[in-house]
From TrEMBL:
It comes from the Bacteria. This is ArsR/SmtB family transcription factor. Residues 6-100 form the HTH arsR-type domain. Transmembrane segments: none annotated. PANTHER family: METHYLTRANSFERASE, N6-ADENOSINE-METHYLTRANSFERASE TMT1A. It holds the Pfam family Methyltransf_11.
Length: 339
């Protein structure tokens, strides 16, 4: 029997959890949140119910401790709790649901459609703005300051194999590629990859590899890179935690993951005009995702615009490490261990 199964709790909190979960719509919401974080708008579209009704159900689930709420500007994202006893009860109930149930199956289909729509909007945005991407980055603290901080975080030691997730214009490969034996950039946008290829060719980085791929299913073998970078990508995603787990999968033992993104802010226009899904990330939120992915957070710091300019976003940098012990096993030219 696991530690979770053996723990016992007073009657009142258990009754509260069971009452909250014991309703059809709320149970369907729990099943959807088991697939990742969602907001009220997502759940309204999926379940075909009014926003006030969905909000009331979510309020009951939050009050019972089954669901946690994360406020981001005018939006709020909801996720299943990790706290007991609610987490254990929720998992026990969800494991016993019939995945073939018509309503649950339809909910999953609608969830896929909602996420696909978000991805299409982001792809259209990247395609439209591929040529002036660097100008868009002027929204935050000077890029030179960000790049200097990235260099300090990575250090000057040689990099065997580097993976840049959401490579965009290829700037991170330009920046760190010269100290890497092998560099791979992955992006879902063909337009972005075209710009990256032109930029890297102009810089003479002809050995860098660029691949079209999904951030949630990277087209690279596992445990192949001693440095993985996710630069200004997470705020476009429906499931940032899932992307971090996939990045961790690509790390070799002792490898490092560098994340660069925005600190929490309230610039709502970025959702509509620039396809941002999330309005920045709190340090403990990202560090929790890193630990859940099996990584150890090493450092975090913020870069604010000089003078605290209100129209400039603060950039946050996180560095984490794979805690597995590095061995002296030789590597092939693809970064994989020799059998």
């Amino acid at each position: 029997m696991s530690e979770r199964e053996s723990r016992q709790f007073p009657l009142p909190p258990l009754l509260s959890v069971l009452r909250a979960a014991g309703e059809e719509t709320r149970l369907r919401i729990l099943a959807l949140l088991a697939q990742g974080e969602l907001n009220v708008s997502d759940l309204t579209d999926i379940l075909g119910q009014s926003q006030p009704r969905i909000s009331r159900h979510l309020k009951l689930l939050v009050e019972a401790g089954l669901v946690e709420r994360q406020r981001e500007g005018s939006w709020a994202f909801f996720r299943l709790t990790d706290s007991e006893p609610a987490s254990g009860v929720a998992q026990a109930v969800l494991q016993r649901l019939d995945r073939g149930d018509h309503d649950l199956a339809r909910d999953r289909e609608r969830l896929a459609e909602v996420r696909s729509s978000s991805a299409e909007k982001a792809a259209a945005y990247f395609s439209q703005h591929a040529d002036n991407w660097e100008n868009i980055r002027a929204l935050h603290v000077e890029e030179t300051a960000v790049e200097a901080a990235i260099r300090v975080a990575v250090g000057s030691k040689p990099i065997h194999a580097m993976l840049d997730i959401g490579t965009g214009t290829g700037r991170i490969i330009e920046l760190l590629g010269p100290q890497a034996t092998r560099s791979v950039g992955v992006d879902a946008s063909l337009d972005m990859l075209s710009v990256a290829r032109a930029n890297l060719a102009h810089k003479g980085l002809l050995s860098a590899q660029l691949r079209q791929g999904d951030v949630y299913a990277l087209p690279v073998p596992p445990q192949s890179f001693d440095l993985v970078v996710i630069h200004q990508v997470l705020h476009f995603l429906d499931e940032p935690a899932r992307a971090i787990r996939e990045a961790a999968r690509a790390l070799s033992p002792g490898g490092r993951l560098l994340i660069v993104d925005f600190a929490p802010h309230e610039l709502e226009f970025l959702r509509d005009q620039h396809a941002h899904r999330r309005l920045g990330f709190a340090p403990d939120q990202v560090e929790n995702w890193l630990r859940q992915a099996g990584l150890e957070p090493v450092q975090h710091h913020d870069l604010a615009a000089p003078g605290g300019e209100p129209d400039k976003l603060t950039v946050s940098i996180w560095l984490a490490r794979d805690p597995r012990i590095i061995t002296d096993i030789p590597l092939t030219d693809t970064g994989r261990a020799v059998a």
